Amino acid sequence: MWRSRFTLGAFRVSQPLWAGGKAKPGWTVPPDQMFHPQIPDRHFYGDHWFYHGFTLFLRGVRPYLEKIGRDTIKTAWYLGHDCLYFPLQQFVSAHNPDVRYLAIMSISALVVYWDVGHRLYYEPPRALQNLRNAVSLAEADRLDKEGFWDSNSETQEKKIQKYNMEHQRLNALWEEAITDATETRSFEVLCSYLAPKEVTPHPVDKMPLRLNMMPYGDSNTDTITFSTPKTEMVYSTNANSQHGPQVFGDYVDRVDPKPPNLRHARSFFMEAYTAPTK
């Protein structure tokens, strides 16, 4: 009986909690919970454009983070001094008691460290870079021989030049054959010049792949595979184009899809948070 009365008494003395979990709910924001004393709006209950919640959180935890950083640096310094510097100093002083020995040891150590570091960390990357440049140059030279870097006019000139040379070769062969056959008055002599390897024209090269044949540019129809989604259209009236987190506008032309009243609140429309500047 006493246990049940105590339980009922605990229920009677407990304060009722309304919406929001507050015993005394109010319609305004308390002064100590406002974002900044310069903001007079007591009814603004949301993230502010300039005073973002995460920015205020960083300002609040800044002293603690600085304290942790200072303590970490001091601890690392003491550990390095007691565990590394002091034993090394004792070892060097024991084996090099004279100042001249210390100078010679220091210079020798610097020279050795410089040589080892130069051989291990400088020469191999430089050699690899030179090798990569040589391979790239060889590949570019091969493409140049194939006509990859030629323009349309240069390719056309090469084809015309090759045709003219082949035409001159066949005409010279015919003149030589008809002259020799006329002098000897023999048809067999004329037919002897009709060797397949001489008469048959050289095969024409296939259409080479050139750099200027690749489609490029936003105005080129060959580069447009799919139409631009409405959510990525510049200055679109669609709500998703102005408030979606994936919208970046026209990055190439540096066109901002956000209206002027939302550009300073870009931190709400980005996946990676960037603190606003003052």
Question: What would you say about this model in short?
Answer:
The protein is mainly alpha-helical and 278 residues long. The protein folds into 4 domains: 49 residues; 48 residues; 55 residues; 64 residues, no CATH class.
Structure write-up:
This protein is mainly α. The chain folds into 4 domains: about 45-95; about 100-145; about 155-205; about 215-278, no CATH class. About 55% of the residues lie in helices and about 0% in strands. The chain has 8 helices and no strands. The chain has helices at about 1-15, 55-95, 100-145, 150-185, 185-190, 195-200, 240-245, 260-265. The longest helix is centred in the middle third of the chain and has 47 residues, at about 100-145. The chain is flat, with a radius of gyration of 42 Å. Residues about 235-245 have low confidence and may be disordered.
